[in-house]
Amino acid sequence: MKGKTTMTHRVLLCDDEIPILRAAEFKIKKAGYDVRIASDGEEAWQLIQQEKPDILVTDCQMPRLDGLGLVRRLREHDDTRDLPVFMLTAKGFELDAEELASQWGVLGLIAKPFSPRKLLETIQAALDSQTVPT
Q1: Where in the sequence is the domain holding 89, given as residue range(s)?
Q2: Is residue 55 assigned to a domain?
Q3: Which of 10, 12, 43, 118 has a 20 to 30 A CA-CA distance from 128?
Q4: b (16+ CB within 10 A) / e for 17-49
């Protein structure tokens, strides 16, 4: 695993299960990322408008606006259309990762329960693949 990131990326974590959210937030902040959290899709949508994150990790099932609804909303707007998204889910076998990728641009599914370390590695790999040296 790589050390701390040299360029501070903003990560938005969205999940209605606060203990999961806090564990992931702690691990990702410790690695040097700027982390924002939201407890549902509506709160995440507002933060995306204000904070302009570099990547979103969202739960699939949440109150008010679920993860897929949030992704659909992102893809409908020019300024959020290309935001990289990973989806957390306890229903990994019920969701089709290939369909989510082709139809909605979801980079991948992360099954719950998940390791915060593995989540961090997934985020780092996605952000590293998008960083173009100048």
Answers
A1: 10-64+72-110
A2: yes
A3: 43
A4: eeebbeebbebbeebebebbbbbbbbbbbebbe
At which residue do the structure tokens 């989806």 appear? 87
Alpha helices in the chain (DSSP H): 18-30, 41-51, 67-75, 97-104, 116-130
The number of folded domains in the chain is: 1
Q: Would 85 be classed as within a structural domain?
A: yes
Give me the chain's average pLDDT, please. Answer: 89
CATH of the domain at 38: 3.40.50.2300
CA distances from 26 to 13, 18, 21, 92, 124 (A): 11, 12, 9, 24, 15
pTM equals: 0.89
Counting residues of the chain whose pLDDT is more than 90, the rounded percentage is 72
Q: State pLDDT tens for residues 40-82.
A: 999 999 999 999 999 999 999 999 999 999 999 999 999 999 9
